[in-house]
Amino acid sequence: MVSQITRGIKISVLTSFEGTYFKNYRIHFAFSYQIKIENHSKDSVQLVTRHWEIFDSLNELEIVDGEGVIGKKPVLKPGEFYTYSSGCLLSSPHGAMKGHFNMINFTTTKNFKVIVPSFRLSAPFALN
What we know:
Elements: E1 2-6, E2 9-23, E3 26-39, E4 45-56, E5 62-67, E6 75-76, E7 81-90, E8 94-105, E9 111-122
Antiparallel strand pairs: 1-2, 2-3, 3-7, 4-5, 4-6, 4-8, 8-9
């Protein structure tokens, strides 16, 4: 598990290799990740958008931007947390992801960026 705190918001990531399967005549490596967002600040905040940089050792960098996470824009009061799971497909058994969440602080009404630390996506059988 990797974790990082930005402006009182702690992001923790746990990854898992889910297996391989064929799609469009190519093998793909499926990974899941669970993200926990904890509000250790004194203000209520809301996650508004996400930005991902997905590194695949056999492909070019993929950038993914979007609203919320898994269709939700969670609001976190001080001391609260939100957990969600998602996943990605890679062309190789090795890769990584990193990114950030754009959030709004309800007290100051200002937007701010919360860093999601880089996390590895590695199939156990490919590690040596």
